[in-house]
Design a protein that fits this description.
Blueprint (H helix, E strand, L loop, with lengths): L1 E6 L7 H11 L3 E5 L10 H6 L3 E5 L7 E5 L4 E4 L13 E6 L2 E7 L9 H18 L6 E6 L12 H4 L7 H11 L3 E3 L1 H4 L8 E2 L11 E2 L2 E6 H4 L2 E6 L15 E5 L2
Parallel strand pairs: 1-2, 7-8
Antiparallel strand pairs: 1-14, 2-4, 3-4, 5-6, 6-7, 8-12, 9-12, 10-11, 13-14
Helix pairs in contact: 3-5
The structure holds one DNA strand.
Length: 254
DNA sequence: ATGGTAGTTTGACTA
């Protein structure tokens, strides 16, 4: 079973790219972030024709998350546990093939110390509390975490030291999230540096490979033991009008 | 020290 996660940065803008990629790679599940479309605008029929069910939670202009799956999703939820649906569309969860799957889009945080930064850290605590209740399930949490977990996930750790997506409190929040029993699948198979999932559109970041690894597929321990491969589709950052993120993926022998 | 780009939307915000 191949599970991918991609911050698409506007689903309407990149629908054709998405469909071509689905056709070429046929993942079983795709978690999307920054769909930037309302539920009414979601291209359910085009994705159905491509062989995928859609579970989605969007809003106008910003954020928006979705799960595409070959298998029919069950028990779809568009909020953190026991909470009213957020004003910001950042979480959707579904049960697929007996796995509990989350597609999450963590707040960016804007600048260390800003109100948005505090919102981000608080959001991480809420997500952790929610996921801690899923403990005994087979669990996958995919998405744009907006945190580079370690220095090895950063092209220039000294330049980024203490900056947004790399600050100590953000990294601690990410670790505490993983402490509920989640494992970063990429690092099960790839330990080297230079593996990034996001490159700023500005300053020729991509050609210079000045990126960060802020997207991930996290799995609980028993699933992580069945993870046979993981990677990042760097090619998807190339070409005409790419997203600023590349898809990340993991394969499981279930 | 600044601004560089992109998406949504037409002014300004988010990233």
């Amino acid at each position: 079973m191949k599970i991918a996660s991609w911050n698409i940065n506007s689903l309407r803008k990149r629908q054709d790219r998405l469909l071509a990629w689905l056709e070429g790679t046929r993942p079983d599940v795709v978690c999307l972030q920054e769909t930037k479309c309302t539920d009414e605008q979601f291209p359910v029929l085009a994705l159905q024709s491509a062989g995928y069910h859609s579970s989605y939670h969007g809003e106008k202009s910003y954020n928006g998350v979705a799960i595409l799956s070959k298998e029919k999703p069950q028990d779809v939820r568009a909020s953190l546990c026991n909470e009213v649906i957020d004003r910001q569309a950042r979480v959707i969860a579904a049960k697929i093939d007996n796995l509990r799957l989350y597609s999450i889009y963590a707040p960016n945080g804007q600048a260390v110390g800003s109100p948005a930064y505090e919102y981000k850290l608080n959001w991480y605590m809420r997500l952790r509390d929610c996921l801690s209740k899923e403990k005994n399930r087979e669990l996958i949490v995919c998405g744009d975490f907006n945190v580079a977990p370690e220095d090895i996930d950063v092209h220039d750790p000294m330049l980024w030291r203490g900056a947004i997506m790399c600050s100590d409190r953000e990294r601690a929040a990410f670790r505490q999230l993983c402490d509920v029993g989640l494992i970063d699948t990429l690092r099960l198979h790839r330990q080297e540096g230079g593996l990034f999932s996001w490159w700023d559109y500005r300053m020729l970041s991509f050609p210079k490979n000045r990126g960060l690894r802020i997207d991930a597929v996290l799995a609980n321990k028993s699933l992580a033991e069945k993870c046979t491969a993981a990677g990042i589709e760097r090619e998807m950052r190339k070409g005409k009008e790419p997203s600023d993120h590349a898809p990340v993926w993991a394969e499981f022998n279930l």
